[in-house]
Amino acid sequence: MTSRIKNIAAALIVASSAIAGSAWAQNQLLNVSYDVAREFYKDYNAAFVAHYKKTKGVDVKIDQSHAGSSAQARAVADGLDADVVTMNTSTDIEFLADKGVVAKDWAKKFPDNAAPTTSTMLFLVRNGKPKRIKDWEDQVKPGVQVVIVNPKTGGNGRYAYLAAWGYIKKKGGTDAQAAEFVGKLFKNVPVLARGGRDATTAFLQRNIGDALITFESEVVSIDREFGAGKVDAVYPSISILAENPVAVVERTVAKKGTGELAKAYLDWLYSDEAQEIAAKHALRPRSQAVLKKHVATFKPLQLFTVQELFGSLSEAQKVHFNDGGQFDKLYTPGR
């Protein structure tokens, strides 16, 4: 074989390998998500892969990445090639929309403001409720220590902060009274956690705090990971509705050719099968039929929306969580 023929053969092998690699890349997705959704997406991904194989005859692979939601959003903005983002606050996706990474109208791309599930904030206390924590007022008592995610790094923490603020407002209090109450709450926080899973680890493994304020879905994760009976879930009289929004990362799918698969992946979150998986992980399904089947898991409580009291999460971000905002005025590390 002449050197010219060898070179042509080698080039053909490289080209065919590149084509094969490109085709496989089109069948791979990276879902960049928030901390406490880890177990849900592990189960959802397996079900979606099976569904896609059955309906399309195509093998796909889904990778997942989890950390504090805001930290994840920044990583994607800085170049992490997520095909989809599945967050716990719209501000993190708005941030990516402002960067041109996801579509400006991302919230209209899927039903229910592109939030296929919701959650709420509750308290986890040690088995037997030794500090008798029953509602928000009990969290600000002297001698009580509370574990909360840093509102600067995670939606979990932002929702905890807004839930506490909203509790006072819903009871007829003023913004000044709400600020005073939230200030007292954060004085009882010994250390701010980076994300939801970090908060759970601090509470259960490092034995920090008397209560953990976190998403309802974390109860199921804790029972599975640490064993049932380690904690008691306490539902406050009033809490916040937390939407879990999703979006296609246009920058990545345009480059990889994964747009169709990414849309199918997020579309299927609204299917009955996916909504059942969400319910099993204590994520509140949007499907009313599925929600009714799991009424024992999702206890009724008075919920208010972000829009009702704060206008939007973006407005709350500017007022409360941006540098120099209300949170910075209320919280001083080590105080």
- At the first level of CATH, the class of the largest domain is Alpha Beta
The count of DSSP E runs of length 2 or more, i.e. the number of strands, is: 12
CATH architecture of the largest domain: 3-Layer(aba) Sandwich
Mean pLDDT: 90
What is the alpha-carbon Rg in Å? 22 Å
Largest sheet: 8 strands, mixed
Instruction: Write the CATH homologous superfamily of the largest domain.
Output: Periplasmic binding protein-like II
Q: Report low-confidence residues grouped into runs of 5 or more.
A: 9-22
Number of helices: 16
Q: What form results from the Cα inertia axes?
A: globular
Number of domains: 2
Describe this structure in words.
- With 335 residues, the protein is of the alpha/beta class.
- The chain folds into 2 domains: 3-115 and 245-270, D-Maltodextrin-Binding Protein, domain 2 (3-Layer(aba) Sandwich); 118-242 and 297-330, Periplasmic binding protein-like II (D-Maltodextrin-Binding Protein, domain 2, 3-Layer(aba) Sandwich).
- It is 48% helix and 17% strand.
- The protein has 16 helices and 12 strands.
- It has helices spanning 3-25, 38-56, 69-77, 90-98, 111-114, 155-170, 175-187, 196-204, 218-226, 250-256, 259-267, 272-280, 288-293, 306-310, 313-321, 326-330; strands spanning 28-34, 61-67, 84-86, 117-126, 146-149, 192-193, 211-215, 231-234, 238-244, 246-248, 284-285, 302-304.
- The strands form 2 sheets. Strands 4, 5, 6, 7, 8, 9, 11 and 12 form an 8-stranded mixed sheet that branches. A 4-stranded mixed sheet has the order 2-1-3-10.
- α2 (38-56) links the parallel β1 and β2.
- α2 runs antiparallel to α12 (272-280), α3 (69-77) packs parallel to α4 (90-98) and α6 packs across α7 (175-187).
- The longest helix has 23 residues, at 3-25.
- The N and C termini lie far apart (78 Å).
